[in-house]
Amino acid sequence: MAQLLKKTVHLPLNNDVQIIQDFKPEDVNLEYTGIKIIDIKEHGFYEEATEAFEICIVALTGKIDVSDGENTYNDLGTRDSVFEKIPTDSIYISREHHIQISAVKDSRVIICYSPCDEVRPTELIPASENGVEDRGKYSNQRHVHNILPDTHTASEKLLVVEVYTDQGNWSSYPPHKHDVDNLPDESFLEEIYYHEMNPDKGFVFQRVYTDDLSLDETMTVQNGEVVIVPKGYHPVAVPDGYNGYYLNVMAGPKKVWKFNNQKDHEWIIDRK
What we know:
The structure is a single chain. The protein is built from no helices and 23 strands. The protein has strands spanning 3-5, 17-23, 34-40, 45-49, 53-67, 72-76, 90-93, 98-115, 123-125, 131-135, 142-148, 159-165, 170-171, 176-177, 179-182, 186-188, 190-198, 203-209, 216-222, 226-229, 236-237, 243-251, 260-261. By secondary structure, the protein is mainly β. It starts with a strand and ends in an 11-residue tail after the last strand. It is globular, with a radius of gyration of 18 Å. One of its GO terms (biological process) is inositol catabolic process. It holds the Pfam family KduI.
């Protein structure tokens, strides 16, 4: 089932680190996709072993140094708020590494997970290499930063993207899905949404549903919360007065993003 995961805070290792969300695939009945959101105070650090997972570390806000156990990548991060609407730095690290993330200043970090088979080279994904695009028209407009798209060769399974949706607009719309392993027509990708709002007291609505409505959940999502999309369509609506941001983590058996729109609503794409 789809799940709305409420904000939870606990302190691991030291008082300079707060884990905001922490879900490996098995924690949320997924096979391929996990996420962790961490707040690290200035001069604080967080460390873990990647074990059987490949990861993408996104310097969401603030500035961090990242070590993969062999090399250190300094001063990653470009913004103090996601709503500056500029891309940020990320880094891909494969399985069987020991990572350490150190905060140069107060930072929020997202770690995206997927189990993988290969040990691959660590690869820095600088902000300047994010693919930036605008999609949609009318009330279906959003601004996109492609961090780790399916065309990026660093990862084995992981895809990562940031999306901005202004007030009064819809996103992931018309409703689309990618839950059938039937390439070249459609790929199977599990998906996790991490949401923020500006101002942060706002909320958005997200519906996750299948054609037969055996899954049909509509959720009110608040700042810092996570939505799990195991299958089905998953549109997002942003109310007037508030702007929405989300970071998507996707993964599946093949790193291909091939979706299908719900046929009943596909007509809106070509309307005049």
